[in-house]
Amino acid sequence: MSLILYGIPACDTVKKARTFLDTQGVAYTFHDYKKLGVPADRLAAWVAAVGWEPLVNRQGTTWRKLDEATKAGVVDAASAQALMLSQASVIKRPVFEFKGQVLAVGFDPAKGEAVLQGLR
User: Fold this and answer.
1) Active site residues
2) How far is residue 17 from each of residues 22, 44, 49, 63, 73, measured CA to CA in Å?
């Protein structure tokens, strides 16, 4: 089973993560939310593993475009999952998964190193 990188191809952070993995020679499968959707079972597993708060990208354009009532309604795991399933772009990207375990959410050099450690 290989590393799975979940995200959106046009996202700058996803591009950085993919470049990092490529330069490290790490094989991975890319799961495109735009084309393939968000797997509900995986989303539930991510929420169970890391909580819903780290998965909701409150800094992104999609979040900012939501009406205030929708934003205010994201108060627990169930409401967050419903929003993330209907608006995949509100999920913080990328999500790194290996053997069913979340290695990281989002990307920066430290998270890249944590992913590499998780693969060992």
Assistant:
1) 11
2) 9, 23, 21, 22, 31
> pTM for this one?
0.92
Residue 98 CB-density burial (10 A; 0-12 exposed, 13-18 middle, 19+ buried): middle
pLDDT digits (tens, 9 = 90+) for 7-31: 999 999 999 999 999 999 999 999 9
Range(s) of the domain holding residue 85: 3-119
For the segment 68-91, the average pLDDT, to the nearest whole number, is 93
Domain count, the chain: 1
- Give the pairing type, strands 3-7 and 95-98: antiparallel
CATH number of the domain where residue 56 is located? 3.40.30.10
